[in-house]
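Field: COMPLEX_INPUT
Field: COMPONENT_COUNT = three
Field: RESIDUE_TOTAL = 895
Field: MODE = joint
Values follow.
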Amino acid sequence: MTPALNAQGIGARLGRTQVLQGLDLQIEAGRWTSIVGPNGAGKSTLLKVLAGLLAHSGVVHLQGQPMAAWPARQRAQQLAWLGQSEGAGDDLTVWDVALLGRLPHQAWLSKPSAQDYAEVERALRQTQAWDWRERTLGELSGGERQRVLLARALSVKAAVLLMDEPLVNLDPPHQADWLQIVRKLVAEGTTVVSVLHEITMALHADTVVVMAGGRICHQGPSASPACHRALEQVFDKRIAIHAVSGQWVSLACTP
Amino acid sequence: MKTLVRWLALLALLWTVGAQAAASATVVDDRGTVVSLMPVPQRIVSLLPSLTESVCALGQCAKLVGVDRYSNYPPSVRGLTPVGGGLDPSIEAIVALKPDLVLVATSSPGIERMRALGLRVVALEPKDYPSAVRVLLTLGDILGVGTAKAVVQSMELDMRAAVAQVPATARGKRVYFEVSPGPYAASASSFLGQTLERLGLQNIVAGTLGPFPKVNPELVVRAQPDVILIGDSNADAMQSRPGWDRLTALQARRVCAFNKEESDILVRPGPRMAQGAMLVARCLQPFYGAAPASTTSKAGAP
Amino acid sequence: MNQWLRQRPLALAAGLVLLSFFLMALGACVGSTGLQSVREVWSDAVSQQIVWDIRLPRSAGAWACGALLGLAGAVAQGLFRNPLADPYLLGSAAGASLGVCVALALLGASPVAAPWLLQLGTTGAAFVGATAAVLLTLTLARGVQQTLRLLLAGVVVGVVLGAASSLVLLAQPQLMQAMQGFMLGTTALVDWSACVLMLGGWSFCMVVAWTLSPVLDGLSLGENTALSLGLPVAPIRIALVLVLALATGTAVAHTGLIAFVGLAAPHLVRALVRAGHARLVLLSSLMGGALLMGADLLARSLLAPQELPVGVLTAVLGGGYLLWLMHRQNPVVVGAKP
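Field: COMPLEX_OUTPUT
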């Protein structure tokens, strides 16, 4: 089966630093892949390269076609990206922000269609932001804001969803909600790629990609012992992965 | 003497040109626009102090209906309607006065606007002796008076009288004329510089630097002028400039400080040129003796 | 009332339009001759000229100029995601000043020498200068990819062209007073043809900015988000920068550098209503127009027959109102954080 995303020979630099070099990665379609690693490993950079947002050497294929061959609108319909908070958009209402996610589906300057409205409502209800759709972003707390931005990414209804640190500011109940949303999406056939620094959360994914120093150390099912050893290795054995109540949990080790 | 000859030759040329222009009932102003001389203006608005003074010197003061805020001579114009400044004229106020002639400087904004509103606008700007004379003669044509030449002649006589008031020992002395803090000096190519040259004085600031260059204070210290001419509001600050206490002119108190009224006279290239020259001449008398002393000069800063 | 207004940007638009008409009517009555001209307008040709050819075009011109500056301010703040952005950011102010400086110097030197220069006038020189400066900024920044580089290039161009203006003024110090008049800005010389020009420019810029405003909305969530949504950020940025140059250049060419309108108008709108960039751009125009019109009225009437510089009054009006808004207990006042 064609991988949803196929990256070959990726090299990328941020300023003067060569962050990624000679990197190959394949993301299976219809699965949830989680990229983990220590700070500065290049996870966010890799995600941006996969989303086609960063200049890089090498080639990325989306659904079997080179990224460069995708027209911008079609690519935006296929691939949605949720980044770490860049702009603020304080004056936009929650509704307006979620509606922005439908831009790839709208002809330029056309009014939103009934389907657009339906998708926006669905996304806002999923993240439990529907009740404050008239409030502006500036009035919300960090966690509430994150849920709205997530709704924006969800409303795109893309086949591939890339998320960079989506759990920032979210409290445990809402982290659990997020987990539910992702599982549902994968069950519907969406490909989800997330960069997470919460290892326990990452271990819920189907596949885990372990990165360190701009290279991929391990890629494999999240439940496999090889994966767990690789994780412990990459974090200098400061974590230990154990099974607790049927889930894999990462515990911090004090020497 | 050479200046005088040059000046008289120019005068002769201008008289013939002026006569020709009058015959053709149009005149060319300083921006090259051809302006009709008919009808003879009865209501005049002036936006430049030297033009106001020129109109009054030609005896047409009664025809002025509005002046700019800087026109203050003769005192009778102070009662006229102010219409803004030369650089920010109040178009509405000017139009409300229903003038049939508006006199402006060449750099005045709003010339096109006023012409579009149907006013007769003449741009004249005296910048030095020859142009001041030319402006007087042109104005004479525009206002339809024959007195212009007589006015110019009497100005020349007054000027010669001023030159005669300069003490013999003062001739050839080197002077420095500071126009404003900066310091900006009046060079030999400026209107003031020409006055000084006519009085037989040497300017330490050469004309090649432009009319009002911003000079390095060191230049003044090195050149050691014999006399310093300055406005009295800036005179006190001079003492504290670094190195200036070495100036012999300051030590000997050979400083001519002019008050606001006197500065106006000196600075405007208009009909009162001769008065300006006389101010300088009288100021030099206490320093270099001879000629009867007068009370209009100041001995400089304490 | 405030909560009610916040949800209804179009109500604000209607209010501003009504205010503008009212100010226009007032503008016909205010001036050095006061109401007398209005009373005599049917009988006296000069009064008619004063009201129809001087006062009305001046008010209309003030509105058009304010609308242009308000539009440019909204575009600038959306483009650079910075509430301190104003229309003069990309060196356009310095370019316009240099253009006027050079034109005045050449005119002063030999007014008969260049008839095309007389035709072009200081108006054309200001416009050419502003546009050339923005193009220079674009070239220096090598496109609009990076906001920071664009802003830096704008600062550099502004400083260098400002230095060039200073050099010209040093050579010809008699121009300093004239330049000061230009720097403070004035609506005194606006006639009907200038109004038509400015309104035409405003209509064009308005249409383009409205059309491109979805990109500004997308950009407010971040550059990468906008790109991921498939928005053609780079070419539209260039288009918006050119709209900025055109609007600013047109305004500056006719009235000089009037400060603060472009900065304050978008802020005032955002303090009153909540709107996306499409509506913000329109409302900002209307607010800028009303603001400048009001300032022009006050400039003419406060110390009649003397006139105050209109730039001083825009700062007092706009700044004063912003200060008052900031002191109220309203948490949502200032616009997007960078």
